[in-house]
Amino acid sequence: MSYDLVFELGKKVLDGGQLTFDEAMKLTQIDKSDIPILLGIANKIRAKFTGNQVDTCEIVNARSGGCSEDCKFCAQSAHHNVKLDIYPLMNEEQILHAAKKAESHSAYRFCIVTAGCGMKNDPDFEQIIESIKRIGIETGLKRCCSLGILSPDHVKALKAAGITRYHHNLETSQSFFNQICTTHTYDERIETIKHVKAEGLEVCSGGIIGLGETWEHRIELAFALKELDVDSVPINVLNPVKGTALENQPPLKPMEILQTFAIFRMILPTKILRYAGGREKALGELVPLGFLAGINGMLIGNYLTTTGRGATADLDTVRDLGLKPIAE
């Protein structure tokens, strides 16, 4: 029976073992009635290896729209016809204001995000550096950013400015990536992550589920992140945006989403699994169950182009479950 398999593999992880790819795939095929058991095991693994603290992060969409890349899910791609608030890089005061607001919301980290392929020949890079320094002077936040593809020199400059963690999603598995994006390669994304790690910075990298990928693609992504030894794994759930190439993509079932979280926790027992975009629409009233499926980090507040539940509701959920926001 599949619940015996769940207990067997759960004990293996709790005892310090590592799941194989084939074992993880078996967990995708369990009886639906056994998914709650899987969630409970994942929750126990989370408690043992990462404790009860929840890593909270708030982001600012510091430069919006007009991106040259053709990622099929993205509202900010210039290849799509989406009604979107497009604007150039915010000034230093605007970014600082967003950071102070995040700190007031009990965010532990603050991430500056810009639309675009990366920082090569980007005239905004120096202004971003100055904003990062200013946030370090005027807040107590851990500083992160998500600026796309970077060279080693960019990474060195960000580290010198005070960045402690860099966000750069793989988005999906290598074998499915060309179905989602054709204007840059998976290897370019991995190269940026390796540049970041070479400078001793932490890496936040995950992806989006619900793009049309198979379970095998999803597990492939989890093992790629394990091999790269990333520190934080944001898991987004596709929120189809009208005007994008995936606007008609059928939604995942809520229990499949929770099952995905739990399997990722079992593959990555010691890492931060971060609730990210799309959870509200995809899970509805089941959002709290994500924390009982192994989640121990979250974006609070709003996302890049869509709104969330609000920081207050997010943090209330965390506390009601007996967990503790890391900034408190």
Description:
The model has no long low-confidence stretch (mean pLDDT 94). Helix 4 (92-104) packs parallel to helix 5 and helix 9 packs parallel to helix 10 (254-267). The protein contains 12 helices and 10 strands. 41% of the residues lie in helices and 14% in strands. Helix 4 (92-104) links the parallel strand 1 and strand 2. It is globular, with a radius of gyration of 19 Å. Strands 1, 2, 3, 4, 5, 6, 7, 8, 9 and 10 form a 10-stranded parallel sheet that branches. It is α/β, with parallel strands linked by helices and 328 residues long. The chain has helices at residues 2-14, 21-27, 35-50, 92-104, 125-138, 152-161, 174-177, 186-198, 215-228, 254-267, 279-283, 311-320; strands at 53-63, 109-114, 142-146, 165-167, 202-204, 207-209, 232-237, 272-275, 297-299, 324-325. The protein has a single domain (2-325), classed as Aldolase class I (TIM Barrel, Alpha-Beta Barrel), CATH 3.20.20.
Summarize, please.
The protein is of the alpha/beta class and 328 residues long. 41% of the residues lie in helices and 14% in strands. The chain has helices at 2-14, 21-27, 35-50, 92-104, 125-138, 152-161, 174-177, 186-198, 215-228, 254-267, 279-283, 311-320, and strands spanning 53-63, 109-114, 142-146, 165-167, 202-204, 207-209, 232-237, 272-275, 297-299, 324-325.
Return the structural class.
alpha/beta
In DSSP terms, counting alpha (H) and pi (I) runs of 4 or more, how many helices?
12
Order of helices and strands: HHHEHEHEHEHHEEHEHEHEHE
Strand count, sense and closure of the main sheet?
10 strands, parallel
- Rg (C-alpha, Å): 19 Å
User: What is the CATH-assigned architecture?
Assistant: Alpha-Beta Barrel
Q: Note the gap between the termini.
A: 43 Å
Instruction: Give the fraction of residues assigned to helices.
Output: 40-55%
As for the CATH topology, it is TIM Barrel
- The mean pLDDT is 94
The CATH superfamily turns out to be: Aldolase class I
Overall, the morphology is globular
User: What is the CATH class designation?
Assistant: Alpha Beta
| Poorly predicted sequence stretches spanning 5 or more consecutive residues | none
Q: What fraction of residues sit in β-strands?
A: 5-15%
Count of individual beta strands: 10
| Number of separate structural domains | 1
